[in-house]
## 1
Amino acid sequence: MDGVLIVAKPTGPTSHDIVGLVRRLAATPRVGHGGTLDPFASGVLPIFLGRATRLAEYHLGEGKAYRATVCFGAGSTTDDLEGELTPHAGPAPTREVVEAALDGFRGQIEQVPPAYSAVQVEGRRAYAMARAGEKPALRPRSVSIERLELTEWDASDPDRPIALLEIECSAGTYIRAIARDLGAAVGNAAYLGTLTRTASGHFTLGDAVPVDVIRSAAAEGPEALRALLRPVDTGLEAWPAIRLDAVELADVTRGRFVRPRDPAARPTDGPVRLLDETGRLVAVAAWRDGRIAPQKVLADIAPAPGAAPDATGPDANGPGSESAIVSAEAGSGGDARVGHDG
């Protein structure tokens, strides 16, 4: 089963748990996800099945969007609601003060990752050091915050107000760190409360499928589950596309360079989608010296026109090669706070 399943992850399970569930329901061994969400977080979790796993890497660096609550009046050892909280003795900030402080977090900023993160420090994971009672020396890193807006303010507990933020940011941004640093910026303390990912690249919450719907479809049978999948190149539609004729298709599926006859083909930087005559993605390629060089072949070897079918099976560059599969699960782990929030 090949395709992209946009899951509406609920709070509770890890991203790895969702991958395991989809793998079992789809009876497909090759399954990966497009960016870790902490267990307490919910929202968009792209899942890639079968040959789509080979394209997951193109989505990992895409921007993300979140809806997050920031709780003032206390700090957290993990910078989120799952850590040990330490109340702050000073007066709580007002909405006006917090909104004014947001200016310092927009655009390109330097951000120190949380202590409980997967960042390596001298060969060790920061979270492992933190759990051992050590304080990892984490270096700041550049992230981009395209949008940061305070949309709601709850001061029903005046000592512990809560801000609801809408955030659009680059991949690798720690939303927990924004909450932590925002608390410090207003002379208080704060931690991340709830977190919902509303978009991951081109995948949005409105397109996401709840887990119970996925379970129900799987109970109906493979076709019902397959109906929930998007094409393997979903989200990559903006890339240039070249249609191949039968001869070119036969060459590309064997990993050979081709000089496309499609009059719309124009050399360009970056990846190019290669399509068969029906419009189905068969490979990702790049221009090289006026020719197209296949980089990831997703289709089975196609017989050359007028020739007997090739009985050799997929070559080393084809989808049958396990070494060619890109695993999006690597590093996801089972612990929420070891990965990026976004």
## 2
Amino acid sequence: MSRQRQILPFLAKNGIGEIAEDVFVNITLYRVPASLVREFALKVCVHHPGGISEAVQELMKNAIKE
């Protein structure tokens, strides 16, 4: 049985809408062209020792700041 869930349940604690900081999620991307992933890895991930996950986290944090 898959333990995958929608992301929304991870965002709210007690239905109040507070961000649950202590929960980590795995994200699966669908239909992303291999050429895009390759270019992202060559241009962005090369600066992140943690790889794609670290690079995506930084992009998300930067987008939120803006």
## 3
Amino acid sequence: MGCALAATLGGCGLYVPEKNLIQEEVPANEKGLISPEGRYESNLVGLIKCETGKGLLEAYDAFHLPWLKSWGTAVTLTITAEEQSSANPGISSINPIAPATSMQSFTAAFGATGSANATRTETIQFTYPNDFLINYARKNIRPGTSDCHESARVNGPGIEGDLKIADFIYDKTVVAATGNAAPRNRLLPLYNTFTEEITFVAAFGGNFTPTWKLTRLSANTSGNLLSATRTKTNDLIITLGPLQTPIKPTLPVQLSQSAQNQHNARVQGSATASSGQAQTPTH
């Protein structure tokens, strides 16, 4: 509703949307160092790191698969915020036809439409060596607990909630450890890669429609005078696969070329799907 009221002043769809509408205040000693939106995004990355490390630690300690520890985990996080607003004023002029007692009248309708749409999409991609995540989780997470939200300082619905990344990793190692998928040594890699994609879409909006009906004039008798919507999409893609070797200290860690190609194909497919489903300006 606040976005709809802001539309009366040319708000929604005319300016770059905020990634997170509800911003936390930055402590005084951190002003100029950490932005609210930077903190929000950093906390999300911390949650992903913690849940991935927790899943790898539990799976490795349960099944002792050496390839799992030597692999890496590629993460792509895409945050999209879209805002739309529209104005649809309409006026009808009513003129009675002589004689005055006649029930006949002439009506002329005038209308106009206007809309605005703004979309902000940010994507980051990074890769962790799995042995780093396992060591991180062993030092920072108590066995049998889920402290990720506390350590990442983020909690709530959607992307800020339980992403169940640990379940995803553990379930895939169960398949590898039981040997049901391939008749080979369980200590050798079963998969080329395995990938999970998690998408959250939240949309809300409001409208404002005052109506006037006079003897010779009526306004906004159908449709909304002002309306506005905001859609936020968080998309997370995680791929586990062999690391590209040798690891160069001056360059980012990456998956092997074939594993990275599969990860990128999933990212591109997700981007294409999101583009096709993007909302068009309302009228």
